[in-house]
Write a structure and sequence with these properties.
Helix content: 10-25%
Strand content: 35-45%
Radius of gyration: 22 Å
Strand order of the largest sheet: 15-16-18-17-19-20
Number of strands: 20
Low-confidence stretches: none
Shape: flat
Number of helices: 6
Mean pLDDT: 94
Length: 331
């Protein structure tokens, strides 16, 4: 119950706007004085962002770029600020830690390549995750959402691309796994679509990662189709259940979700100047997705649409400017 980390944002100039530089401060155990931990520039991505504190280790976990991608570091909170690399991925950004004991203990690190993955530090949870993967093989996205005070009963969430997810309680002593709740009970007996990670070429030849959702039971040929760019642009789509793409697929549409350049998660070079300052690149990647759907015969070129909200809405509008004949509907 003792606050040990503080975030401070300041205004800049006479505009009253917040500075993009965020400052973090910490307190040593048993000390009331705040000391500087790090700074982070939200525009450039430079600096270090603390995301968790481990009281037992008297250390913080923080994200900081290493060779252009966010990596996880451990930083001692004893005044030395001694820093060591905990985990780095050579393909994508590390984006968070995984916790147990109702958030009090860090047990692993997580990141998303084609699918979200977890590297467990804690051997007990590592073995439990492996066992659960065998027990419920059709639900590969497994998450530990809580535990009883004694740690014996664990609340487990499991889902997939075509299953919105369900909750289980695992009893360690009894080695028993019981399903207790469905996230979307009305979809329990509804046939849902599979989501396939794919790549397609941008205008300059760069491979753009994306997810393709096809209508259940339909051949990937001459379908009405929708390109669905995500918002942000400092965000990304992931493999898993997505209610909107599933809804559109249920209506008969093929759905393409591109992680265009400007998306988060793929390192500093992919993020570039972001999707606004580098909008021609980002929107070009989005329109290239529509062209790819048509060129592969997946989409009927006369029934090709684009739909987006937030930055995705901006990309949809801009696509009608840079490629006015490509999409027959812009939403």
């Amino acid at each position: 119950g003792n606050p040990g980390m503080m975030t401070a944002a300041r205004t800049q100039g006479a505009t009253g706007q917040l500075s993009p530089v965020i400052r973090y401060h910490y307190r040593r155990s048993g000390n009331d004085d705040w000391e500087e931990f790090s700074t982070h520039n939200m525009l450039t991505g430079e600096g270090m962002v603390p995301i968790a504190v481990d009281a037992d280790l008297d250390a913080a976990y923080a994200l900081k770029r290493l060779t252009g991608r966010a990596a996880l570091f451990g930083v001692k909170l004893d005044g030395s600020m001694a820093t060591e690399l905990v985990y780095a991925n050579d393909k994508v950004d590390v984006d968070n830690v995984v916790r147990a004991a109702n958030g009090q203990r860090v047990i692993g690190v997580t990141f998303a390549e084609e699918r979200r993955q977890v590297i467990y530090f804690d051997e007990e949870y590592k073995k439990l995750a492996a066992s659960l993967s065998k027990a419920i093989p059709d639900l590969p996205l497994i998450r530990f959402d809580g535990a009883s005070a004694d740690g014996n009963r664990v609340l487990v969430f499991a889902s997939s691309d075509s299953d919105p997810g369900r909750y289980y309680v695992y009893d360690k002593a009894k080695r028993a796994l019981n399903e207790i709740m469905l996230v979307r009970a009305k979809l329990e007996n509804v046939q849902l679509a599979s989501v396939k990670p794919i790549t397609y070429p941008a205008a300059d030849g760069v491979s753009i990662p994306a997810y393709l959702t096809l209508p259940p039971g339909k051949e990937a040929k001459n379908l009405p189709a929708i390109v669905l760019p995500h918002g942000g642009p400092g965000a990304r789509d992931e493999w898993g259940f997505d209610w909107l793409s599933q809804y559109l697929a249920s209506l008969g549409y093929a759905v393409l979700q591109p992680n265009y350049r400007g998306s988060a998660g793929y390192g500093a070079d992919w993020l570039a100047k972001n999707g606004f300052q580098s909008w021609r690149t980002s929107v070009g990647d989005v329109t290239a997705g529509g062209k790819w759907l048509a060129s592969q015969g997946i989409a009927d070129a006369e029934r090709l649409a684009i739909l987006g909200w937030s930055y995705g809405g901006y990309a949809a509008l801009q696509s009608s400017v840079v490629a006015p004949d490509l999409f027959k509907a812009v939403v």
